[in-house]
Specification:
This protein has helices at residues 3-20, 22-25, 42-52, 69-84, 99-102, 104-109, 124-131, 145-148, 152-159, 177-192, 206-212, 232-246, 254-262, 266-282, 290-302, 306-316, 321-332, 341-352, 358-368, 392-399; strands spanning 58-63, 87-92, 118-121, 139-142, 164-169, 197-204, 222-226, 249-250, 287-288, 339-340, 369-370, 377-381, 384-387. It folds into 3 domains: 41-122 and 136-226, P-loop containing nucleotide triphosphate hydrolases (Rossmann fold), CATH 3.40.50; 230-302, Helicase, Ruva Protein, domain 3; 306-399, Orthogonal Bundle (Arc Repressor Mutant, subunit A). It is globular, with a radius of gyration of 27 Å. The longest helix is centred in the first third of the chain and has 18 residues, at 3-20. It is built from 20 helices and 13 strands. The strands form 4 sheets. A 5-stranded parallel beta sheet has the order 2-5-6-1-7, with helices on both faces. The chain has a 4-stranded mixed beta sheet with strand order 10-13-12-11.
């Protein structure tokens, strides 16, 4: 078959997948923004609605990476803005952002440009010129970004009367401690002013401490809401909802397998479901089988988050690659919060029916373990470990297509 024919087949299959809408239903790479598709978050939604409609209150969503903080924040913000007539300002932070750029959109809404901050002032000369019929009665004086847009009092004063909601996502990407302290100061000042502008901050677990430690008085005006992992039953609801929309049937064992291996992370549920459904739709079938799930794991790993894939590849890049991967799978089936070398050896035997002693394990751990998060596993104390990224056990199980029989 020539290249043109191959491309025709690829396009035909891809068009079939696009037409099905599966890539808009299972969305591992973008946040959910439709409330009907958000599962297992009723408690958090209730808390956000309660506190972001209470005078003087703002909110901070925090939790592990991959638990669905951005989806929850986006959905809640859209619904709050729609139902209460708020203007929604969204800011997804990067390492290049600072205090001024974070508040750029709300400031622009009150005619303050952080790049050329200016204010119009009457001058004596203007007054004289106006007496001769000259229309120019004001001159623009640029005050400079450092003087105004980096001043929390200036920012709070100008945006406090906005009836809106400012969503600050990826808060942990902000590098400067000073910028974080200034954001905290603005929140306090807005609360003191009984501002109609609410702020919702989203970040990883450390974000709450970083924001409040330097500003203890924030505790009265900033509600901290921890976003926990989703229950297995709610992950299954995500799958059922998607299957219904796609008119696909899942063999009874498949949904629980996907939900269990996801370990509470909707990211993995969406990722596996997307890849397995794409395969079934491409073949114009309507039933998803366990074999389909096993076949989809490789593509799911290829399309997974780059940081997870890179860490795994670097950790197993060795002449002992197979052994290291086996050891990592054994570790991935241990208690996720802390496990010992003995625990790894026991799980290794359970999975592979091969003996592995702690002394044999030692040399391999030297490649896998560090005292910080620079390697795939972290040493908590002598002989006690955990994965540096809590999502890694799920990644490893999917990579090894490991779906054991487990009770829900």
């Amino acid at each position: 078959m020539d290249t043109s024919s191959i491309l025709d087949n690829i396009q035909e299959t891809n068009d079939r997948i696009i037409k099905s809408g599966v890539r808009s239903i299972f969305t591992p790479h973008i946040p959910i923004i439709k409330v009907d598709w958000l599962k297992g978050r009723n408690k958090e939604l209730r808390s956000l609605f309660e506190h972001l409609t209470t005078p003087g209150q703002h909110a901070l969503l925090f939790g592990e990476r991959g638990v669905g903080k951005s989806s929850l924040a986006e959905t809640a913000s859209i619904e709050l803005s729609k139902r209460y007539g708020l203007t929604l300002f969204k800011k997804q932070c990067s390492r290049l952002d600072n205090f001024a750029t974070i508040f750029e959109k709300p400031l622009k809404a009150v005619n303050v440009d952080v790049n050329t901050i200016s204010e119009s002032k009457s001058t004596g000369l203007s007054a004289v010129l106006s007496g001769f019929g000259v229309s120019k009665d004001k001159q623009t004086q640029k005050e400079g970004e450092n003087k105004l847009s980096l001043n929390p009092s200036f920012v709070a004063e100008h945006i406090s009367d906005l009836k809106g909601l400012l969503l600050i996502d990826e808060f942990d990407a902000i590098q400067s401690t000073e910028d974080k302290e200034k954001i905290a100061e603005v929140i306090k000042l807005l609360s003191d002013r009984n501002s109609t502008l609410r702020i919702l901050i989203v970040g990883i677990a450390d974000s709450a401490r970083e924001l409040t430690m330097g500003h203890p008085s924030l505790t009265r005006c900033l509600r901290e809401i921890k976003v926990r992992r989703i229950l297995i039953k709610d992950l299954i609801e995500i799958l059922k909802n998607g299957a219904s929309r796609l008119k696909l049937n899942f063999d009874p064992v498949v949904m629980p397998k996907i939900a269990i291996v996801s370990s509470g992370y909707p990211y993995f549920t969406h990722l596996l479901a997307l890849k397995v459904c794409e395969d079934v739709i491409a073949e114009e079938r309507t039933t998803v089988t366990m074999r389909d799930l096993l076949n989809a794991t490789e593509r799911a790993i290829e399309n997974s988050e780059e940081s997870l894939l890179t860490m795994f590849i670097e950790s197993t890049n060795s002449t002992h690659k197979d052994k290291l991967e086996r050891i990592l799978l054994a570790a991935a089936t241990c208690n996720e919060f802390r496990f010992s070398g003995y625990d790894i050896c026991k799980k290794y035997y359970d999975i592979y029916k091969e003996d592995l002693t702690t002394s044999q394990l030692g040399p391999y751990l030297s490649k896998l373990v560090s005292t910080d998060n620079s390697k795939i596993m972290r040493r908590l104390s002598k002989g006690i470990y955990r994965f540096s990224d809590p999502r890694m056990p799920s990644f490893i199980k999917i990579h090894k297509a490991y779906f054991p029989d487990e009770e829900i």
